[in-house]
Amino acid sequence: MQRGLFVFLLINLFILILLVRNVSTLLSLLVEDAAADAIHRAELPSPNSSLIEQHPQIIPKIIHQTYKNETIPEVWVNAQQSCIDLHPDYEYILWTDETSREFITAKYPWFLETFDGYKYPIQRADSIRYFVLAHYGGIYIDLDDGCNRRLDPLLTYPAWARRTVPTGISNDAMGSVPQHPFFLRVIELLQQYDRHWLLPYITVMYSTGPLFLSVIWKEYIQDYPSEMSRVRILMPDEYKKYSWSFFTHHTGNSWHGKDAHFIFWMGQHWMFLTFCGFLLAAVVGFCLFWTYGRILLLGAQYRYRYSKVSSIISPSRFSSSPSRRARRIMPILLRRVSFKRDEATETSFELGLRDD
Ligand SMILES: *[C@@H]1O[C@H](CO)[C@@H](O)[C@H](O)[C@H]1NC(C)=O
Ligand SMILES: *[C@@H]1O[C@H](CO)[C@@H](O)[C@H](O)[C@H]1NC(C)=O
């Protein structure tokens, strides 16, 4: 094995391992199907079933929602009302910009600076929901989610979130007991994830939004939490669409910008993009490989200039001629490419000698 090639491959392997290590959670998220924690439809009593009463309900009967002020836009009034009407015995809290900030100031002053520093209001709306769940417990529902049936069966799990397709979990409907270890970890890590990622959409997703939550969740479940600290996952069919589903959806997310459409497009074409990614990596890898070969060749020629005298004095075909030395350290693939142009004779010589 040629040492040059070996070193080159080793360096590449090292870089690859470093990259994979940094994005390993993201990569593993792609193949995480949440099956181990899924709430199975068989364990969910049907609406109005007497079985509902028999399970101890541990999540407090509180519904949290957020909006910037108390004037809910017309499009969401019906959704909001459907949840309130179905749950007359639940406490209902609408967190506005003002009450959210008051809550953080009073209960989590260490977070106030980060909270105020968020560039996008949606980041505050995202983060406040984790804090109120960690503090009071209850169920958080986005304003554009209406209720299709009573949420009582979901009160029997210590914590739950909703599965999203193709990957991860979302933060638009979640429930938790107060001080649940998962949400405690979430609020703890918010500051660490408060970074900018060029595109507003990615910044929001990865600093406070569903991607942030999914990454924390993926790392959390790798520790095999106990029954009480488990986060159960509401699967898409139980989320909405069917008569037994819990929610109805009213309108699309209100805050997505142009870059979001681009990212949705990327999401829809991820196979193609992954293929392109590999192709690009291969091309870049080959270019690096080629450059590396050229540099070695250059080095060999450079050294030759200084040893010319000695090789003239004792001319030997098997001593240290530059092309031979370069050949020894240069990857086989590159030899012909590099020698062809300026040393056509060397190439044929090389090809003739290949047996030894
Ligand atoms: C459950 O009960 C409510 C009111 O008692 C009723 O309006 C609703 O249709 C019932 N749902 C089912 C699926 O039976
Ligand atoms: C809430 O915000 C909307 C839109 O910015 C505004 O029209 C409305 O007057 C505000 N409501 C209150 C109670 O301040």
From TrEMBL:
<dbReference type="InterPro" id="IPR007577">
    <property type="entry name" value="GlycoTrfase_DXD_sugar-bd_CS"/>
</dbReference>
<dbReference type="Pfam" id="PF04488">
    <property type="entry name" value="Gly_transf_sug"/>
</dbReference>
<keyword id="KW-0472">Membrane</keyword>
<dbReference type="GO" id="GO:0016020">
    <property type="term" value="C:membrane"/>
</dbReference>
<dbReference type="GO" id="GO:0051999">
    <property type="term" value="P:mannosyl-inositol phosphorylceramide biosynthetic process"/>
</dbReference>
<keyword id="KW-0812">Transmembrane</keyword>
<dbReference type="GO" id="GO:0000030">
    <property type="term" value="F:mannosyltransferase activity"/>
</dbReference>
<protein>
    <recommendedName>
        <fullName>Mannosyl phosphorylinositol ceramide synthase SUR1</fullName>
    </recommendedName>
</protein>
<dbReference type="InterPro" id="IPR029044">
    <property type="entry name" value="Nucleotide-diphossugar_trans"/>
</dbReference>
<dbReference type="InterPro" id="IPR051706">
    <property type="entry name" value="Glycosyltransferase_domain"/>
</dbReference>
<comment type="similarity">
    <text>Belongs to the glycosyltransferase 32 family.</text>
</comment>
<feature type="transmembrane region" description="Helical">
    <location>
        <begin position="270"/>
        <end position="293"/>
    </location>
</feature>
<keyword id="KW-1133">Transmembrane helix</keyword>
<keyword id="KW-0808">Transferase</keyword>
<feature type="transmembrane region" description="Helical">
    <location>
        <begin position="6"/>
        <end position="31"/>
    </location>
</feature>
